[in-house]
Amino acid sequence: MKNISDNTKRTVQREIKRRTVISFSVFFLCVACGIFLFARLYNEPTSADNVQPTLRKALKVNEKIFSLFYSKARQAKAFKKSDAVATVRVNGGAGMDGILDTATWRLKVARAPGDTLTLTLDDIKALPKTEVVFDFKCVEGWSQVTYWGGVRFSDFMKKYNLVTQSSMKYVGMITPDAEYYVGNDMPSMMQPQTLLCYEMNGKPIPQNQGYPLRLIIPVKYGIKHLKRIGVMYFSNDKPADYWAERGYDYYSGL
Length: 254
Known about the structure:
Layout: H1 2-42, H2 53-69, E1 107-112, E2 115-119, H3 121-125, E3 130-137, E4 143-152, H4 153-159, H5 163-166, E5 170-174, E6 181-185, H6 186-189, E7 195-200, E8 203-204, E9 214-216, E10 231-235
Parallel strand pairs: 1-10
Antiparallel strand pairs: 1-2, 3-4, 4-7, 5-6, 5-10, 7-8, 7-9
């Protein structure tokens, strides 16, 4: 029995040693492959949108997956007004130079080439008001519970008979000075929490937060919430997007 026990112990020890060698070999092989792939991706020339083609392909795959499972019935978590911060952080200032006067500001909605609807802030305020309190998330890593008021984008589309446009894939928005621009997919825009906002914390939006009208789209990161909307248009091709051109994810969904 002693010999059998000793043989068993030696067999177990050999098996442990064999598995340990295999485990460490696989580990170091994976590390080497990771380093090789990282170096190859890091040194890959960037394309016109300032990101490596391989990474852009991966982002597009992620977008397809997100889009496939997206449902406008899924909403961002709602909070109480008392949960909202009093001082809202400003996430970027591109397209925000100068003071904008609502006496001269107009929202230009390009329904089709040569067919532009021009609206005042009062035209937009005439629609039913909706409020949303949600956790605004920035790609920089911070978030804040914020409180906004305005018009549901879906109500806006219905009011101005933009039925044909609502069947298109994307909505593009541009600031009046054309310095900042975003593209958002239509399903996310038609989600019931998406607003054309003219109020923050129950008061008119400050200049640095997008006065007189900005987009709030809770299912997206902050880079998609265009401030100071000047022009809106519709397309089946992806509209130009400021941060996507600088290497960020076009979809930027949460």
